[in-house]
C-alpha cells in the first residue's frame, strides 16, 4: 500500500471527528455572533444604556458597529470550540498510533505486514495529522468571511462600518495566536509544533518498542528534545547584548537545534518502526 | 479519484485557506507611508526615523516611517527571528556599535554597555563594573578593562578593585576616555543603596591597568526629607568618541515622601551646572548656568567636539546656543529657526552628528521632519509624510489616524 493510500486511510478513519469539530466550531461561532449582534441591536432599538442587559459585553459599542467589535465581544464563543479542537487533536497525536494496537483487532499487525517500507506508515500518520491541523485552521479562515457576511446581513448598513480581516483576527486572543500576522511567524509556530509531534511520535514508538521501560525512555527522550530546543534561548540569551554569542549566532543555533531534534526524531522513529517493533 | 475525495478536499482546504489568507487576504491591512523630500538634500533625510502610532477602530499599531517607507511594529508584528536578532535593541541600532562589531567581532563578544566604549585612531577601550559579594561585609567594586590595539589586533584585559571593603557603592560606567597613557572611566556611584549619588572618575595606567587616582564629582545638594535631586550627565551623543569635557546638571525638586502624593515630584527649587575636564582634571560649578530655562520651552543639548550645543525649542521656534569648551565663551542664540521658515510647527528636537533634527507638523496636521546645520542653523532638509501603497486614506483620515511623536536618527556616524 503506497504512502498516499495510507494517508487517505488515516484521513478516512478520522473524518467524522474532524467533521464534528468543524460543525461545533461553526455552530458556536455563528450562534455567539448572532446573539451578540441581536442583543446590541435590541439595546439600540429600545435606547437602553450600554450596561443594561449587556453586562457580558466587555467593550462598549461604537456608534457604527464593526465586525472587529463583534469579534472582540464574542471571544469566548470563538475560543471554546478552538480549545476543544486543540484538545482533541492533541489527544489524537497519541490515538493515531495506539488505536492500531488497542482495539477490537490488532490492526497494526496488518499495517506492519504490508509489502512497503514501514516508514510510509510513519510519514502517512504525520501527514494526516498535519492535514487535520491545517484543515482546521483553514476552516476557521474560511468561516470568517461567511461570518462577516452574516454580520452584514444582521446589522443594517447605516449602523455598520468596515473592518479588515487582519484586525478581526488580531482582536481575538485565540485567533491571533492560531493565525499569526506574519507568514514567517506562521512557519515558526507550526514548524515548532510539527517538531513536537515528531518527538511525541518517537516517544510513542520507544514505548511500543520497549514497553514498560520504554515509557521512561520516551519521557527521557521528550525531556532531552525540550532541553535541546530551549537550550539556546535559556543559556545563550535572546536580545541580551552581554552574552558571548551574537543574536544571529543564537538564532542560527536555535534553528540548527530544531532541525536536529526534528531529524533525530524522524530517524529514530522510522528506525524503531522498521527494526525494533516486531509482529 | 472519487474514492479519495475526502482526503483531496481536506488537502485543498488546508492549502487554499492558509495560502489564500497570507497571499491575498492579509494585504492592504494598514496604510503605508514614506518621508518625502520637500526641500534640500534627500540624503540628509535618509537617516531620520519618525516613530509613533497608526490609530485603528479599536487599537493603535506602533509604526516607524523613513524615507524608504513605513514599518509596523508591536507584539503582533514580531517574529521569533526579529525577537532573537535583537532588532529592538538600541545597542545594535547604534551606528558606532555596529561599526565596532563589524571591525572587531571577536573583541566585542559579551560587551553590552554602549557607554563603556571608547575608540580613537589607535585603541578601542571597554570598561565595565561589577560588585562582588553584594550586601556582604566584604563587598567590593571592581572594574574590568579591555584594551584593543587596532593596528595589531592585540587585546589586553585588566581587572582592578576600585572600592575596597567595606563598600556600599554601586558603580555603573557612564563614559570612558583616553588621555595620553591613561584610561579615565566615569562612573555613577549610588551610595548607601541608592540614598545618594555622585560621579567618580577613576584613572588607570593604560599599560598596566593600575589605578592611579580618582576624582569625586559632587557638591550638589543631597536628597532630603522634602527635596529630590535629579542629575543629568551631558556628554557627546556619540558614546565611543573622544571627548574632553562632560557637564553635570543637578536639579533640585520639591517632593512629598509621605501621604497621598508620596513620590510626586513638585516644583523645581534650584538648578546647578558643573563641568569636568578629563585632560586637566578640573571640576567646578559654573558661575552662570549653561542655559536659562524659561517658560514652557524644552531643550536638547549635546557636546560636539569643541562646543556644548543647546537647542531651546517650542512649537514656534528653535534657538541654538553654544559654549566653547576651551575658552568657555558663550554664543547665545547664534541661530534661530522659526515655524514660519519651516512652514510647520516644531515638535521634537534632537542634536546629533553636526545636525539638528526636528519633527514638525504642518498647518493642516501632516507630520514631517527638518534638518538644520548645527554650526549655522541653515535649513538643509525639509520633508513631509506622504501615503504610499494601495490602501489610501483621505487626508483628513490620515491626520486623524497617524500620530508620529518620536524621532530617532538611524545611522549618521560621521560629523
From TrEMBL, chain A:
Recorded superkingdom: Bacteria
Keyword terms, alphabetized: Membrane, Transmembrane, Transmembrane helix
Residue ranges crossing the lipid bilayer per the database entry: 16-38, 76-99, 120-143, 187-206, 218-238, 250-274
Protein name: Uncharacterized protein
Organism: Paenibacillus arenilitoris
Automatic annotation (TrEMBL), chain B:
Keywords: Membrane, Transmembrane, Transmembrane helix
UniProt superkingdom: Bacteria
Transmembrane segments: 6-24
Protein name: Uncharacterized protein
Source organism of this protein record: Paenibacillus arenilitoris
